[in-house]
Amino acid sequence: MKAKIVITPKKAVLDPQGKSVQNALAHIGYTGIGAVHVGKYLEIELAGTDKEAARKQIDDACHKILSNPVIEDYQFEIE
Prior knowledge:
The chain is of the alpha+beta class and 79 residues long. It has helices at 16-27, 51-66, and strands at residues 2-9, 40-45, 72-78.
């Protein structure tokens, strides 16, 4: 199995990297670009076949170590 995880800043948190990307896109002529949020993407290979146990394990890892729940949101899927 594989866990695919996306971690992004919470909407209320300033994202200077996202703002830089937004400004750069506008500077080179891209119009209509709204807010940009820069985050992290992780893929984790998982042993076993129990999707529910894997889901609990990945959720715990995301909450405790992979993200900062104060300023970041995360979502994941298990394949």
